[in-house]
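Sample intake sheet
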Amino acid sequence: MYSFKRSSGFTLIELMIVVVIIGILAAIAVPAYSNYVLKGKRSDAKAELLKAQVAQEKYRASHTSYGTLIEIGSSATSTYTSPGGYYTIAISGIPDATTYTVTATPLSPFADSTCGTFAVNKDGKTTSGSGQTTAAKVTECW
């Protein structure tokens, strides 16, 4: 007589359940990972702005006004790219004896739709986005 031998392996339904579970886990993990990468790129701008702020205060301690990028030790005349290459750093306007504003603008193709441009001034006031200075926005971005 014929004896049926049961084959071992997985059924199509079992494989589909595993694929669905992996898809759900990926849908959760990818946005979280993207958010961490974005925060890492933002830190490139923040570190460079704080570095420029310290250089401005150091320059002002021995001069009668705040300095341009060249005067505070940068080799660039008007703008330069942050070390990570994600932002353009510039001093807005002409610094004088009372104020300066250093800005970090995202470079293409990197775009930060949440925070946009970062800025810091002589009072240490930080802003992000399109001039948005709300406490929630600054806290989220800085």
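Comment: The mean pLDDT is 83. Strands lie at 79-81, 87-92, 101-106, 118-121, 126-128.
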